[in-house]
Design brief:
Length: 140
């Protein structure tokens, strides 16, 4: 007969391992800013978001991916300035951040994603090859 088989658990001399606190989840905030908005407005949106995160959470990393062409037009715009902020946060901070970014002028789109443990680091800003000027056709 197995020890503890009829008791529905571990034998009295064996205890279940202690429950460890789960690590704080990391969130990704991807913000796409309007490239036609003034530079100071775009900088204010990013600094306000970072200040909100720092007040109730912790910024893990920031990545500026610069202006890029979007896959499809959003509100008749073809490009946006991409930013990624990785952070730890509380549910209240997430709700406040969503509300603030939803009503901010100059934000084309944003998305907050909860990362699974073991997710690799984000890629660095891709290096783009310089665009070489094409030669004009010779006049005929």
């Amino acid at each position: 007969m197995l020890i503890g088989a009829g008791w529905g658990g571990f034998a009295p001399c064996y205890r279940a391992p202690p429950q460890m606190a789960a690590p704080a989840p990391i969130y990704d905030l991807v913000v796409m800013l309007d490239t036609t908005a003034p530079d100071d407005q775009r900088a204010k949106i990013l600094s306000d978001a970072e200040a909100m995160i720092a007040s109730a959470g912790e910024v893990v990393s920031k990545h500026d991916w610069g202006p890029r062409t979007m896959a499809y037009e959003i509100r008749h715009k073809t490009d946006a300035e991409y930013h990624l902020i990785q952070f730890h946060a509380t549910p209240e901070l997430l709700a406040n951040l969503q509300r603030t970014l939803r009503i901010a002028d100059g934000v084309v789109r944003f998305r907050i994603i909860k990362l699974e443990p073991g997710t690799p680091d984000p890629p660095a800003k891709p290096e783009r090859a310089p665009i070489e000027p094409t030669e004009a056709p010779a006049p005929a």
